[in-house]
Amino acid sequence: MLSHGLVPSALFLCVGVLYDQLKTRLVTYYGGLVSTMPNLSTIFSSSTLANMSSPGTH
């Protein structure tokens, strides 16, 4: 129950931050995010793995 509440919230937060910074939903403008926002990309990738129920992310 705890991970079900935290993981989707983290994903929505990451998408909201991306939209707020870039003001677009086109994926082509999202290139190079690791170099400009490394913390956000780390949170986004770990949340995506947790959403897929990878081992060690529960």
UniProtKB/TrEMBL annotation:
<keyword id="KW-0830">Ubiquinone</keyword>
<keyword id="KW-1278">Translocase</keyword>
<dbReference type="Pfam" id="PF00361">
    <property type="entry name" value="Proton_antipo_M"/>
</dbReference>
<dbReference type="InterPro" id="IPR003918">
    <property type="entry name" value="NADH_UbQ_OxRdtase"/>
</dbReference>
<feature type="domain" description="NADH:quinone oxidoreductase/Mrp antiporter transmembrane">
    <location>
        <begin position="1"/>
        <end position="57"/>
    </location>
</feature>
<keyword id="KW-0520">NAD</keyword>
<protein>
    <recommendedName>
        <fullName>NADH-ubiquinone oxidoreductase chain 4</fullName>
        <ecNumber>7.1.1.2</ecNumber>
    </recommendedName>
</protein>
<dbReference type="InterPro" id="IPR001750">
    <property type="entry name" value="ND/Mrp_TM"/>
</dbReference>
